[in-house]
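Lab notebook, bench 4. The sequencing result for the construct came back, and we need a structural model before the next group meeting so we can plan mutations. Quick request posted to the team channel:

Model the 3D structure of this chain.
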Amino acid sequence: MRGILAAILVLAWGSGADVLTDTYPFYHTSAALVDEATSLAATCSGLSLSDEADGAASVPVARLAALGAGGGDQSRELKVVMVFGEHARELISPETGLAWLRKLCGPEGPKLRQQTSFVMVLNANPQGRAMVEAGEYCTRTNENRVDLNRNYGFHWKAEHEDDDETGVGSKAGEPVEAFSSGSGAFSEPETRIVKRIIKEIKPDIFLDVHSGTKGLFMPYDWTMDPIPNESDRKHMKTVLQEVKSQDCPECMEGDCAETVGYLAPGSSADYAYSQGVSFSYIWEIYADAADAASDLADQKAFLAKKNDGASLLQNSARARKRNDAAILATSAGDDLALPSWAAGDETALAPLVLASKQNCLVQFNPITKDEYEGTLARWTKAFVTMCDTVRRVQSTP
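Done. Here's the predicted structure in token form:
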């Protein structure tokens, strides 16, 4: 089966290694992301860039010291940890991280970094992203085929890529893509690196940036029960509502599992919150217009029925389409589920594989330069809103 898949990949993509940037030159390769960040470090006051390693794996991390903190009350420093690119196919996430780094190092930097420091994991899944850059646009996992956002140590649960999973909340009853959560909590080097950063920095804000819908989410991911601390819940929700109002009125917002429509035990935001990060978030910053509108409609329908005390059971055509696409969409080296009519006929199957991969690219990422640049502008502004609102909430008795 693996020989068939290899032949299909050659038919579909050829042997070139730069498929993404050949077709979409406004995107960056992993190496180009690091190169640009390194160039910024040469002129940006207080910026340092390092490879944070765990065994043979490493991820690029940017650290920006607060400007002005040394001359005043350092207890007022707001500490922010941000993670980009945990899911490889969500290319727009590290692109937004790089754009945010540019902004912090640009003319607005002194104001944005006044009493605020940032630690940014610019590309949390470099080996997975490399596969996506080479045309494997559906690759979500890391080099060990583990979903990194199921591998953290708070309510970690053993899950496997061949499990049958269904949604909850706004997507109750719908099929959900399944991925391995690893051999145990923090089995993956990439999540161990993020864990170390959280423990070292003890941030006020943790933000993990994803794509695939448009949503502003707070814990919990592992359960539909709300976090028990009402003050934390109120404060986190205030920030999300402000970002929604100012920067993404079409976004969903709320408790992650209930709002996004599936349980995600072992997520980064849940772990960060368990470590005392009282503003802990996962944001989904991009989806094509039809998917985003459908997700928002599902959430509104769920909330209406929830408020009426009724149950919800949906199985939308969009979800079925995504689930069917996932059957064909595989990362390099995976076994491929072949339709019976195409078994053994690589030439017949190649167009289906190509279409499936392209669907993944479009589902998770803008593919025109205008939409790409608009996404970067919108969310770098939203990061400002988040920081400003957290500071205001912290200062309110």
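The beta strands are 47-54, 57-64, 78-84, 116-121, 165-166, 175-176, 205-210, 214-218, 252-255, 279-285.
Will bring this to the meeting.
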